[in-house]
């Protein structure tokens, strides 16, 4: 049996609803950009110096050649779409596209830039909101009409939600079509896998440190089970693994200069991932509140991000809420504490 195409899926969802049809057109345009980017990535170094640094964002992050190429591909693909406003990690300010457009879109054109020249997976993240005026991209994540990401891995995958579950598609290259491989992704509530950049451990706050110490203590610690670490350094790849088999991802705020709110951007990284997770029975928090409830103050605002299996995300939130009851500095293989039994 040949599985449903992305186009068929979106047609079925949109029916004759005009706004939904606009969302469908926009998702298909983004999928086109993803297809073009996948071709470039498949050529690797044969496509030129894709990992070369070309500039810097206002806050100092580097912009590589492929970041800029991906940004351009997205912009071109959306030129004919019903999108009034486009925000991107690679542009300081949003740009106006189609004055008659009904939608606002924000993108991380290339997520996982540090992996460009290593032949590891990278991706494109997007969120689609109703166009409500110049501040349309500052609506909270609860207002998203659709969100998703493309993952350029051994196969090209698309994770998508339009608010009716989370669907997974894979690019059928000979036909140039995305085909559905999972109609209802389900993130298991419990997990034995966590993803965090542990090189920052000395900068973490008490709640994050205690949570990870308890995972590390494994079967001899308060969790009474062994855990496994996975960290790709491309959030999209970690998110896809979590959609497939569960797990938890953490990029918390930490004490490094400029990292008080972590590294990930609320509007075009955290919100789309949070929407996908919730629609697959997972969860996403900044430690204190649900990601989707946060009202953005600016397009490039950062946010501490914890997402994945609901039971673990709730546990991290509990550690944050009750941080004062946790030991200031616990031994790595610590004793059972008040919250940690
Ligand atoms: O290098 P670090 O600090 O571990 O950060 C890795 C994280 O940063 C990101 O690469 C941020 O995305 P960009 O590549 O779009 O800047 C995430 O995908 C990834 O999880
Ligand atoms: Mg990113
Ligand atoms: Mg990026």
Automatic annotation (TrEMBL):
UniProt xrefs under InterPro entries: FBPase_C_dom (IPR044015), FBPase_class-1 (IPR000146), FBPase_N (IPR033391), FBPtase (IPR028343), Fructose_bisphosphatase_AS (IPR020548)
Occurrences of domain Fructose-1-6-bisphosphatase class 1 C-terminal (ranges): 187-320
Gene3D superfamilies xref list: 3.40.190.80, Fructose-1,6-Bisphosphatase, subunit A, domain 1 (3.30.540.10)
Catalyses which reaction(s): beta-D-fructose 1,6-bisphosphate + H2O = beta-D-fructose 6-phosphate + phosphate
Broad class of the protein's primary localization: cytoplasm
Residue ranges of every copy of the Fructose-1-6-bisphosphatase class I N-terminal domain listed in the record: 58-181
Residues reported to bind substrate: 111-114, 197, 249-251
EC number: 3.1.3.11
Keyword line: Carbohydrate metabolism, Cytoplasm, Hydrolase, Magnesium, Metal-binding
Binding residues annotated for Mg(2+) 1, in chain numbering: 89, 108, 110
Family matches, as Pfam families: FBPase, FBPase_C
One GO biological process term: fructose 1,6-bisphosphate metabolic process
Residues reported in the UniProt entry to bind Mg(2+) 2: 108, 111, 269
Cofactor: record remark: Binds 2 magnesium ions per subunit.
Complexes and interactors: Homotetramer.
HAMAP family membership: FBPase_class1 (MF_01855)
Family affiliation: Belongs to the FBPase class 1 family.
Protein name: Fructose-1,6-bisphosphatase class 1
Gene: fbp
């Amino acid at each position: 049996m040949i599985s449903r195409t992305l186009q068929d899926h979106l047609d079925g969802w949109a029916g004759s609803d005009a706004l939904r049809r606009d969302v469908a057109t926009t998702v298909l345009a983004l999928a086109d950009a993803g297809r073009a980017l996948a071709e470039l990535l498949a050529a690797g170094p044969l496509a030129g110096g894709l990992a070369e640094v070309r500039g810097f964002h206002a806050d100092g992050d580097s912009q590589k050649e492929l970041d800029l190429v991906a940004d351009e591909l997205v912009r071109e693909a959306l030129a004919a779409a019903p999108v009034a406003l486009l925000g991107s990690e690679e542009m300081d300010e949003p740009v106006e596209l189609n004055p008659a457009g009904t939608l606002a879109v924000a993108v991380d054109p290339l997520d996982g830039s540090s992996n460009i020249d290593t032949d590891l997976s990278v991706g494109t993240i997007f969120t689609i909101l109703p166009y409500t005026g110049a501040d349309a991209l500052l609506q909270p994540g609860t207002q998203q009409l659709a969100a998703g990401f493309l993952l350029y891995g051994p196969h090209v995958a698309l994770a998508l939600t339009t608010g009716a579950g989370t669907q997974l598609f894979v690019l059928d290259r000979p036909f140039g079509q995305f085909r559905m491989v999972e109609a209802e992704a389900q993130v298991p509530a419990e997990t034995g896998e966590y993803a965090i950049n542990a090189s920052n451990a000395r900068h973490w706050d008490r709640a994050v440190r205690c949570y990870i110490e308890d995972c590390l203590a494994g079967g001899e610690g308060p969790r009474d089970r062994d855990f496994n670490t996975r960290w790709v350094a491309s959030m999209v790849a970690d998110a896809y693994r979590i959609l497939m088999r569960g797990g938890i991802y953490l990029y918390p705020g930490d004490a490094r200069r400029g990292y008080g709110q972590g590294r990930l951007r609320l509007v075009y990284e955290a919100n789309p991932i949070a929407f996908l997770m919730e629609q697959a029975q997972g969860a996403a928090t900044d430690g204190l509140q649900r990601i989707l409830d946060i009202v953005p103050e600016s397009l490039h605002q950062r946010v501490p991000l914890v997402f994945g299996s609901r039971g673990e995300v709730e546990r991290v939130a509990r550690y944050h809420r009750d941080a004062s009851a946790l030991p200031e500095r616990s031994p790595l293989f610590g004793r059972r504490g008040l919250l940690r039994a």
